[in-house]
C-alpha cells in the first residue's frame, strides 16, 4: 500500500458489503453511515420538493385569474396547506439535515455521527410521516385545509365527522416530524461537542458547523413547544378536550403562542445552515479567507439566543397587548444586527478577491442578494404599525419566499453543486448548472417580487379568488412560478446524468481548504484513514499554511494541501 | 503575494478614495430618498389618520432599506464585474482575515439604526394608540402607551354607542344598536373616531380595511373594542384577513365613509326599511355546488344562511 494510487481505493471499495461506496443498494437500506443517510435525506427531500412545487404551480394556475375557477375552493385550501407543510417539514428540514449529516462529520474530522443508529432512525421517520401526509389526500374530506399554522378553531372543524381525517393525519405527521428532528438535534449537538478532531478548537471549526450547532440548539429548545401544541390540538380534535376550542372555554390564542414559539425560530433552523454554506462557498470562489470569522460565527449563536424571543411578531394583529407588541418589535429588529454582520462579512470576503463564477458561486451570490432584500422587508415587517397593515397579506408571502426560495433554496443549490463532486465522485456539467442558475434567479424574482406590491395594496394571503385590481401582478407572479417549475429540469438532468456519466472528480476539484477536501471523492466508509490533527484555522486562503499536520487519507493519496 | 512592503501602510485611505466613497454615498442617499418618496404611491388611498402615519413610517423604512440594498448590491456587482480571476490564474487573493475597526463599525452602526427605527415605529404606534384603542386586553398594563393626560387633550367626540361588527363563516354584519339597524355595509361618519365592537361567532376572522391600514383579528369568545379615524369620504373594501376556512376569500364587504348629514340620512333611510335577505357570495356559491352532477371538491363546513338586514350591499359592489 505504500505507493498506492486512486485505483487502490476503487479496488478496495468494490467489496460487496452493504456500506460500500459503490453499492447503490446501501441507499435503500438501514445504513448507519452518515454519508449514506445524508444522501437518503437529500434525495427524499428533493422528491417532496417536486411534489410541493407541483402543488404551488396549480395554485399559481388558479391565481392567474381573479375568479375561483381552476379548482374548487376546498381543493385550493388543501393545496396551500399541503404546499407549506411539505416545503417545510418534507423539503427544507430534511434537505438541510441531509447536508449537515453529510458534511459535519467530514468537516470536524470524525468517522461518523455520535449515534449512528439514532441517526438512521431519525431519517427513516421522514418517509413514514411523508407517507402519512400523502395519504391524507385519499381520506374522505381530503387533506388538512387549515393552513400550515393549523390555527384552531378552523383546524378543529371536521366537516366529515370521521375520526380519521386529513387534519388528524397532518397532526400525527407534524408530531412525528418533531420527534425525528429532536433525535437529529441531539445527535448533531453531541457530535459537534464531542467528536472534533484533535487541534480543532471552537475557533478553528468551519463556520458551517457553527451554524449547524446553532440551528440544532433551536430544535432542542423550540420543538417541544410545537410538538406539545400539536398533541393538544390532536386531543381537542379526537378526544374532546378543550385546550383551544373557545366554544368549550379553550383559548385559541394560546395555540398561536405554542405554534410560533417554535415556528419562528424554525426559520433560523432553516436559514442558519444556509449562512454556513455562504461562509464556506464565498472564500473558495473568491480565494480569500472568510472576513471577520469570529464575528461571523459568534453572530450565529447570538441569532439562536435572540430567536427565542421574537415569536409574537407573528401575532401583532392577534389579541396581543401593546407592551408585547413593542417588546417583540425591538427583539425582532435586533436580529438584523447579527445577520447584518454576516452579510457585510460576506461582501468583504468577496471584495478584492479573485472571483471564479462557477455555479456554486453564482447561486451563493444570487442567494445573498435575495437574502438582503428579504432582510430589509423583514425589518419593515418588524415595525408594528406597518405590520398591522401588511400582516396576513401577500407582502409577508413575498418576504418569506425571498428567504425560503431566494436565499434558502438557492443556498441549497450552491451547497449541492459545491459538494456534488465530493459526494458522488463525479463533476457536474457547468453549462447546465449556469442555465439552472439563470432560470432560478429570474423565476424567483418574477414570482416573488410582485407579491410585495400586492400586499401593500391589501391582497390577503391564502385567498382562492381576489378582486380584479390585483390581476396584473398575479399574472406576472404566476408566470414566474411556472418558470421556477421549469428551472428544476436542467438541475435534474445535470445531477442524474453527471452522477452516472460525469467526469471523475479529484479529491479537491475547487482547490478548497477543509478536512473534507483532503480525502478521496467520494470518501471511504469511515472517512479518515487517520484522524486528522488540525493545526490552523479553516480559511487560510492566500497564506500557504497547512491545515493538518498528518495525512488523513492515510497513504492512499499524498497530493493534499 | 510577498512583495516588498510599501513605505505607506495599506490601511490609510487616500484622499481620492475617501472622496469617491463620499460621492457614492451621496448618490446612494439621493436615489434612496427618491425611492422613499415613491413608496407612498404603492399604497391604497389614505382614508384614515392611521394611514397617514403608517405611510410616513413606510416611506422612512423604504428610504433606509433602499440605501442599504443599493450600497451592498453595488459593491457585489462591482466585484463580480471587475474582480474576476483570469482564466488560468489559480493564485489566491490577498489573505485579509478581517479588520477589527470595520467589524465594530458594522455592528454598532446597524445597532444604532435599529434603535432609531424601533423608536420611530414606537412613536408612530403611540400616536395611533391615542387615536383609538388598538388592543383589547385592557387588564394588561399599557406601559404608559396611552397617558391619560394626552388622551384628555383630544377634542371631545359626541358619544355614540359602538357599532357591533358580527362576523361568521362567511358574512359580515353590522348592527347599529341606537337605531336598531342591521346592515351588510358599514357606514361611518368622516373625521370622527369610529368605535367598533368586533364579535366572531365561530372561528378566527380578521377585520381589515387596506385604505385605513388597520387590522384586528376577531377572536371567538371575546368582544374586541376597536377604533380608528376615517378622514376621507369614499367607498372602501373590507376584507377578512385571518384565514377562516373554505369561503374565506369571498368574505368581503364595503365600508362607506360619508359626511355627518349623509350618515344621518342613511341611518334614517335604513331604519325605515324592512328586514330582507342580503346577497351572500359564500352561500350562493355553496348552493350552486348542489346543481353539479359531480363534486370537484371536498366536504366543507356549510356557510351560514345570508344575513337578514335593513340595508344590503353585495360583495360585487364598487369601491375604491
TrEMBL record, chain A:
One Pfam family named in its UniProt record: COX1
Pathway where it operates: Energy metabolism; oxidative phosphorylation
UniProt xrefs under InterPro entries: Cyt_c_oxase-like_su1_dom, Cyt_c_oxase-like_su1_sf, Cyt_C_Oxase_1, Cyt_c_Oxase_su1_BS, Cyt_c_oxidase_su1_bac
UniProt keyword annotations, A-Z: Cell membrane, Copper, Electron transport, Heme, Iron, Membrane, Metal-binding, Respiratory chain, Translocase, Transmembrane, Transmembrane helix, Transport
Topology class, membrane: Multi-pass membrane protein
Transmembrane intervals: 36-58, 78-99, 120-139, 168-195, 207-235, 255-278, 290-314, 326-349, 361-382, 402-420, 432-450, 470-496
Keyword Heme annotated: yes
Coiled-coil features, chain-numbered ranges: none
Organism superkingdom: Bacteria
Subcellular compartments: Cell membrane; Membrane
EC numbers, comma separated: 7.1.1.9
Domain Cytochrome oxidase subunit I profile: 24-535
Substrates-to-products reaction catalysed: 4 Fe(II)-[cytochrome c] + O2 + 8 H(+)(in) = 4 Fe(III)-[cytochrome c] + 2 H2O + 4 H(+)(out)
Gene3D superfamilies from the UniProt entry: Cytochrome c oxidase-like, subunit I domain
Class of this enzyme: translocase
Transmembrane among keywords: yes
Homology family: Belongs to the heme-copper respiratory oxidase family.
Function comment: Cytochrome c oxidase is the component of the respiratory chain that catalyzes the reduction of oxygen to water. Subunits 1-3 form the functional core of the enzyme complex. CO I is the catalytic subunit of the enzyme. Electrons originating in cytochrome c are transferred via the copper A center of subunit 2 and heme A of subunit 1 to the bimetallic center formed by heme A3 and copper B.
PANTHER family: CYTOCHROME C OXIDASE SUBUNIT 1
Protein name as it appears in the record: Cytochrome c oxidase subunit 1
Organism: Leptolyngbya subtilissima DQ-A4
Amino acid at each position: 500500500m505504500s505507493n498506492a494510487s486512486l485505483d487502490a481505493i476503487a479496488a478496495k471499495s468494490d467489496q460487496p458489503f452493504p456500506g460500500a461506496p459503490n453499492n447503490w443498494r446501501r441507499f435503500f437500506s438501514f445504513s448507519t453511515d452518515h454519508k449514506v443517510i445524508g444522501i437518503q435525506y437529500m434525495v427524499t427531500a428533493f422528491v417532496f420538493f417536486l411534489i410541493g412545487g407541483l402543488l404551488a404551480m396549480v395554485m399559481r394556475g388558479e391565481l392567474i385569474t381573479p375568479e375561483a375557477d381552476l379548482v374548487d375552493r376546498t381543493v385550493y385550501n388543501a393545496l396551500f396547506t399541503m404546499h407549506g407543510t411539505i416545503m417545510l417539514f418534507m423539503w427544507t428540514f430534511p434537505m438541510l439535515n441531509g447536508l449537515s449529516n453529510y458534511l459535519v462529520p467530514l468537516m470536524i474530522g470524525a468517522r461518523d455521527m455520535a449515534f449512528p443508529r439514532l441517526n438512521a432512525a431519525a431519517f427513516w421517520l421522514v418517509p413514514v410521516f411523508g407517507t402519512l401526509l400523502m395519504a391524507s389526500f385519499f381520506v374522505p374530506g381530503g387533506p388538512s385545509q387549515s393552513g400550515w399554522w393549523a390555527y384552531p378553531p378552523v383546524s378543529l372543524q371536521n366537516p366529515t365527522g370521521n375520526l380519521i381525517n386529513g387534519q388528524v393525519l397532518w397532526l400525527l405527521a407534524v408530531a412525528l416530524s418533531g420527534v425525528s428532528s429532536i433525535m437529529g438535534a441531539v445527535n448533531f449537538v453531541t457530535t459537534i461537542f464531542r467528536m472534533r478532531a484533535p487541534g480543532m478548537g471552537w475557533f478553528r471549526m468551519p463556520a458551517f458547523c457553527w451554524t449547524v450547532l446553532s440551528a440544532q440548539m433551536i430544535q432542542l429548545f423550540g420543538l417541544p413547544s410545537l410538538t406539545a401544541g400539536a398533541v393538544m390540538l390532536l386531543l381537542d380534535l379526537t378526544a374532546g378536550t378543550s385546550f383551544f376550542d373557545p366554544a368549550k372555554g379553550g383559548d385559541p390564542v394560546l395555540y398561536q403562542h405554542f405554534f410560533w414559539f417554535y415556528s419562528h425560530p424554525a426559520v433560523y433552523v432553516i436559514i442558519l445552515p444556509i449562512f454556513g454554506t455562504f461562509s464556506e462557498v464565498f472564500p473558495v470562489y473568491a480565494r480569500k479567507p472568510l472576513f471577520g470569522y469570529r464575528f461571523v460565527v459568534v453572530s450565529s449563536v447570538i441569532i439562536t439566543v435572540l430567536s427565542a424571543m421574537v415569536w409574537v411578531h407573528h401575532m401583532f394583529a392577534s389579541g396581543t397587548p401593546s407592551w408585547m407588541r413593542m417588546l417583540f418589535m425591538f427583539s425582532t429588529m435586533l436580529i438584523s444586527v447579527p445577520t447584518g454582520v454576516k452579510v457585510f462579512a460576506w461582501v468583504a470576503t468577496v471584495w478584492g478577491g479573485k472571483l471564479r463564477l462557477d455555479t456554486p458561486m453564482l447561486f451563493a451570490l444570487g442567494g445573498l442578494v435575495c437574502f438582503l432584500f428579504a432582510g430589509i422587508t423583514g425589518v419593515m415587517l418588524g415595525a408594528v404599525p406597518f405590520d398591522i397593515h401588511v400582516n396576513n397579506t401577500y407582502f409577508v408571502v413575498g418576504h418569506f419566499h425571498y428567504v425560503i426560495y431566494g436565499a434558502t433554496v438557492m443556498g441549497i443549490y450552491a451547497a449541492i453543486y459545491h459538494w456534488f463532486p465530493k459526494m458522488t465522485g463525479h463533476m457536474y456539467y457547468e453549462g447546465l448548472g449556469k442555465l439552472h442558475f439563470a432560470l432560478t434567479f429570474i423565476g424567483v424574482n418574477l414570482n416573488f417580487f410582485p407579491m410585495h406590491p400586492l400586499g401593500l395594496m391589501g391582497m390577503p394571503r391564502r385567498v382562492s379568488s381576489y378582486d380584479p385590481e390585483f390581476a396584473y401582478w398575479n399574472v406576472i407572479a404566476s408566470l414566474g412560478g411556472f418558470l421556477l417549475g421549469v428551472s428544476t429540469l436542467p438541475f435534474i438532468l445535470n445531477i442524474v446524468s453527471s452522477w452516472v456519466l460525469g467526469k471523475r472528480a479529484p479529491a479537491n476539484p475547487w482547490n478548497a481548504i477543509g478536512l473534507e477536501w483532503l480525502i478521496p471523492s467520494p470518501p471511504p466508509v469511515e472517512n479518515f484513514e487517520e484522524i486528522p490533527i488540525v493545526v490552523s484555522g479553516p480559511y487560510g486562503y492566500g497564506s500557504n499554511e497547512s491545515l493538518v499536520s498528518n495525512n488523513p487519507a492515510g497513504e492512499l493519496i499524498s497530493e493534499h494541501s | 503575494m510577498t512583495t516588498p512592503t510599501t513605505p505607506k501602510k495599506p490601511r490609510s485611505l487616500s484622499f481620492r478614495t475617501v472622496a469617491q466613497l463620499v460621492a457614492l454615498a451621496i448618490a446612494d442617499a439621493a436615489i434612496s430618498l427618491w425611492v422613499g418618496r415613491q413608496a407612498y404611491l404603492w399604497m391604497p388611498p389614505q382614508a384614515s389618520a392611521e394611514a397617514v402615519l403608517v405611510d410616513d413610517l413606510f416611506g422612512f423604512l423604504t428610504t433606509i432599506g433602499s440605501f442599504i440594498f443599493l450600497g451592498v448590491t453595488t459593491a457585489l456587482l462591482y466585484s463580480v464585474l471587475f474582480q474576476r480571476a483570469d482564466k488560468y490564474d489559480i493564485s489566491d487573493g490577498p489573505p485579509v482575515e478581517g479588520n477589527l475597526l470595520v467589524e465594530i463599525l458594522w455592528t454598532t452602526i446597524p445597532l444604532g439604526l435599529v434603535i432609531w427605527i424601533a423608536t420611530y415605529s414606537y412613536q408612530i404606534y403611540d400616536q395611533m394608540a391615542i387615536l383609538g384603542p388598538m388592543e383589547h386586553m385592557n387588564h394588561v398594563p399599557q406601559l404608559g402607551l396611552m397617558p391619560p393626560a394626552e388622551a384628555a387633550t383630544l377634542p371631545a367626540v359626541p358619544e355614540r354607542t359602538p357599532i357591533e361588527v358580527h362576523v361568521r363563516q362567511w358574512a359580515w354584519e353590522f348592527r347599529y344598536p341606537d337605531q336598531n339597524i342591521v346592515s351588510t355595509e358599514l357606514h361611518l361618519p368622516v373625521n370622527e373616531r369610529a368605535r367598533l365592537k368586533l364579535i366572531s361567532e365561530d372561528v378566527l376572522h380578521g377585520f381589515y380595511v387596506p385604505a385605513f391600514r388597520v387590522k384586528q383579528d376577531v377572536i371567538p369568545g371575546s368582544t374586541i373594542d376597536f377604533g380608528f379615524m376615517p378622514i376621507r369620504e369614499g367607498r372602501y373594501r373590507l376584507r377578512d384577513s385571518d384565514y377562516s376556512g373554505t369561503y374565506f376569500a369571498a368574505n368581503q364587504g364595503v365600508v362607506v365613509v360619508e359626511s355627518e348629514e349623509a350618515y344621518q340620512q342613511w341611518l334614517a333611510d335604513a331604519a325605515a326599511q324592512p328586514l330582507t335577505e342580503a346577497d351572500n357570495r359564500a352561500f350562493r356559491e355553496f348552493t350552486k355546488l348542489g346543481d353539479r352532477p359531480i363534486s370537484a371538491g371536498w366536504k366543507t363546513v356549510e356557510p351560514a344562511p345570508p344575513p337578514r338586514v335593513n340595508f344590503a350591499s353585495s360583495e360585487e359592489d364598487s369601491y375604491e
